[in-house]
Amino acid sequence: MDFNNDLSPIDILTFITDELLQAYKSSSGENEKARTIVKFLERWNDDISIAKLKGLTVEFESDLEWFNVSCPLSITGLQGKVIILDFFTYCCINCMHVLQELHLLEERFPIESGVVVIGVHSPKFENERNAANIMSAVQRYGISHPIVNDSRSGMWRAIGIRCWPSLLILSPSGVPMMLLMGEGHGKFLQDFFSSALSFFSRQGIIDHRGLPIKLFRDFQPASNLRFPAKIVRSPNGQYAIADTGNNRVLVLTAGGVVQHRIGGHQPGFVDGNLTVARFNNPQGIAFLNENVLIVADTKNHAVRQISLTNAIVETLAGTGIQGNERIGGRLGPLQPLSSPWDVAIFRTRDMDMSFHLDERNIPEKTIILISMAGTHQIWGYFPEGIIWWKFRKFEPCCCVSLIGNGLEENRNNSYPQNAAFAQPSGLAIAGDVLYIADSESSSIRKASMIDGKVMPVVGGDRNPLNLFAFGDIDGRLFSAKLQHPLGVTFNDANNRLYVADTYNHKIKIIDIDSNDISTLQIKSQENTNLILNEPAGLCLDASGKKLLVADTNNHLIHIIDLVTLIAQPFGLDFRQIASASEIDAPQDIQKATENNIIKTLPLDLIKPSKIFFNLRLSPIFNFTKEAPQKWILKTVCQSVIVNPSSGTLLDGMCHMQVQATRPDFMCESSQIFTIEFVLNLCLSNCCLVKKITVSIKCDDMPEEYISIHNVNIDIEQ
Fold first, then answer.
1. Euclidean distance between CA atoms 127 and 627, whole angstroms
2. Is the peptide bond preceding residue 340 cis, with omega within 30 degrees of 0?
3. pLDDT digits (tens, 9 = 90+) for 92-147
4. Which of 77, 101, 360, 510 lies 20 to 30 Å (CA to CA) from residue 680?
5. 175-196 burial by CB neighbour count: b if 16+ within 10 A, else e?
6. How far is residue 595 CA from its own chain's centroid?
7. Residue 673 phi, psi (nearest 5)
8. Does residue 644 have a cis peptide bond before it, meaning omega lies within 30 degrees of 0?
9. Which structural domain range is residue 455 located in?
10. Are residues 341 and 468 in the same domain?
11. Based on the domain organization, do 253 and 314 belong to the same domain?
């Protein structure tokens, strides 16, 4: 079609991208989807309506800081690569989700295949312009592709990028081809790059050389902590720390002696005893009682429970795969979640209208409150079931949205489903009030646990759409300014709320009666100002006179005397834990606990071959009704195309087509691809999630071509 000459290149790019996505989504099968993408690629040869895009120059400024590479990169120097420019800011939850999508893409299409992912960090907050803070984020998120610190957002403005995250895809000649905004494009990206690499390879313009990669993520701090997030205290004075960068939870005495170390350096989603259980980037944590902890297992998109008495970890809610629901209501293990960031425990009486002889001794029921950062809401998990707000019935073990409509706003409202949050990241209960660190609106807010009404406390702006009202100003209500706060805790001893004002690197205190906030002037033992680095969590000791702070990017815990405001390091003593435990051998654990299956097939990949998988359940199992049984390709040999790359099982079965891209391809004893199955299964008394990884290897070339291969996998207990 012809475009109006007044349209900017970014408008043209947005239009043709939407046009492609609509055609792709309406295509009925994998072959038709591939033809749709090829047709899109072919139009670039002679379609004069998009000539304006060919004249758009995309290049990095020359004086920018780079990470994960030993020298700066340039678009000109990457001729022959299909490039993804990921415009992101490290605070943004949607950007974090896209990083997971890009990681899967990079596993399938390494740099040598002709694909390069470059993160263009375009900061929202002042704190995010700092190179050291970006380096910490690169390490914290495990990013392995090149990152450039575009601190002035020069490329963002030159191209006309409008939101985080945005993915700009460049052709091998550096021409902008497509602009994807937001998250959730993982499957499309897999299909697009599969077709694009084949298309450009036929033209002989793909460069298969590597890049000067030099990873920064292998840094290990001298302390035993790595990016600690939340810290909490039990009723009797134990502490627990979400040791996020180490993918584990620590339980320790009031004196800092570590008694339990649950999880390990390698991320995973494994239930079971304390020595084999695995977490992935746990952020939030709360004591349900003295011997039970609840964990917001953020990258696993799950809420987990640790029983110290039974020495067991189990999943309460979440499937291990990111969801996008805004309502919920399913049984916990069947309910997909989206980046739970913190948890809090609330107890209340059941409103079932039953008659009680003694109204003063009605037992309270437990509700686990969840800050669902990925959908900008507050959710609840109900272990016992309850009748609560407006006599609404919540079934036992269900997980459901409670407050917030899912829009990313700073909207207060008397009706919980009309309110809106912006990446809620910290929770604290004070009586019948839930306090919320709403990080992307840079505000502290509160919600009534009696009726769900949401009200302002400090920070942010009266305009609910203004998410840029940040700063570092003490004061009252909206006149006060914070910068991306992540943690809150309430002190019953003085009726004050303490805030980890994360991007201002400060701890602040709120008078909840007047809604006034002020900065604590904390000193070190040497009587110098205490220098924090993005603190994310805090809690009070049993007396309420000392405050423990997780100094996240400094990999430390401080304990602060609230009378003198003098801080000292809170040291951890690991000597009571066996030094040669299973936790310290994550590779061996992984081999012992994960279901890794290798199948060798007589494949002649010069011609297309179909592989049928049949997952056969033991009689003790059933596939959970209405729950997805998903599979996804984890790795694929560079010279092989596998279609489709993901899908769902039908009656335990799926199939795919495999073929080499080169006529001289030899595959003896080589691994062709790896596929992961994520199964939702039911036993007679419970439901569970089971992951199975199958690697397909190639046997010697068969004498006769076999077009169909069957792979049977028996699922035992």
1. 42
2. no
3. 999 999 999 999 999 899 999 999 999 999 999 999 999 989 999 998 998 999 99
4. 101
5. bbbbbbbebebbbbbbbbbbbb
6. 24
7. -160, 165
8. yes
9. 228-353+362-577
10. yes
11. yes
